[in-house]
């Protein structure tokens, strides 16, 4: 398998768009796209792409084995953290990715939503229909 095919394979395996891989690696979308469709075995960008995909350069170039990708090893300066991305997308969780949450069944998601709603009510004193500030008045 060529370098480009390896990059595409691992990018798709991680569910990354070309733009997201660009953000992580610093390599332009056009360059990544061209690399993915070419039958090239080398590129000056291979090391940056490997790191952004959570692989070593050797792992990326080795098509004899399917490597476990570890995107968390890419440096923070190369890609946005889950927390930053979740805040940009109005995602409420800072350490749980949307992709991970989507692995749950609808029943499990409903249970989590119910639990979170209960926690918000507990900590703020506000139920979904209650617009109070959370301060409780004592009865006389």
Give an account of the 3D structure.
The protein is an all-alpha fold. Helices cover 50% and strands 0% of the residues. The chain has helices at 3-13, 18-25, 29-37, 46-52, 57-61, 82-88, 98-101, 106-124. Mean pLDDT is 78; it is low at 72-79 and 133-140.
Termini separation comes to 78 Å
Give the number of DSSP strands.
Answer: 0
Order of helices and strands: HHHHHHHH
Query: Portion of residues in helices?
Result: 40-55%
Which ranges are low-confidence, i.e. pLDDT below 50, for 5 or more consecutive residues? 72-79, 133-140
Radius of gyration over all CA atoms, rounded: 22 Å
Beta content: under 5%
Note the main sheet.
Answer: none
Sheet/helix structural class: mainly alpha
Number of helices: 8
Mean pLDDT: 78
Indicate the topology.
Elements: H1 3-13, H2 18-25, H3 29-37, H4 46-52, H5 57-61, H6 82-88, H7 98-101, H8 106-124
Helix pairs in contact: 1-3
Short description:
With 140 residues, this protein is an all-alpha fold.
Search tags:
8 helices, 50% helix, 140 residues, mainly alpha, disordered C terminus, elongated
């Amino acid at each position: 398998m060529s370098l480009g095919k390896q990059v595409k394979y691992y990018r798709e395996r991680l569910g990354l768009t070309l733009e997201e891989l660009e953000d992580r690696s610093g390599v332009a979308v056009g360059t990544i796209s061209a690399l993915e469709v070419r039958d090239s075995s080398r590129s000056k960008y291979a090391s940056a792409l490997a790191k952004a995909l959570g692989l070593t350069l050797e792992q990326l170039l080795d098509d004899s084995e399917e490597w476990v990708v570890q995107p968390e090893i890419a440096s923070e300066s190369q890609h946005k953290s889950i927390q930053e991305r979740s805040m940009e997308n109005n995602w409420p969780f800072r350490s749980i990715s949307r992709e991970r949450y989507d692995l749950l069944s609808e029943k499990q998601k409903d249970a989590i939503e119910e639990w979170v709603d209960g926690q918000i009510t507990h900590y703020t004193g506000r139920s979904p229909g209650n617009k109070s500030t959370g301060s409780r008045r004592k009865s006389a």
